[in-house]
Here is the input.
Amino acid sequence: MEDPVNHLAAVTTVALPANFGADLGKGIGAIALYAIVGLVLMLIGFYAIDWTTPGKLSDLVRTGKPNAVIVTASGILSMALIIVVAIFFSASDLTAGLITSVVYGLIGIVVQVLAVRVLEWVTRMNIGATIEKDEFAPASIVVAAAHIALGLIVAVAIS
Here is the structure.
């Protein structure tokens, strides 16, 4: 039979590091703060896309316009790519990291919106007419691809 004293000694040698609780608390706080920053940047990104795209995207999505859904979803995905990379490459200090995430994220959103608008202008796509159609329009896939591609480019530029 195993000696209970020796068993207790073996269990106590697996104790957590002294700062475990404090480090865990800081980590949870950092996750919460970065999540808030990410959410705010996503909202800003959505409204930037909505504001610069002809038509009211949120209304068009709500009414089920397939092309508006495709363009909006790709715009949100491209913004998320930019924000994720901005957070990933932020400074290791929490305060500096949050600030650089916000700054890089905002710059990335502005660059993304401008780049997509320039691309639409160069290709002479009438995105407003495309997203308002009730039936699927292949041009919406081109715009979606442009959103994602430019989001990747901007995200890598941030890194």
Q: What stands out?
A: The radius of gyration is 23 Å.
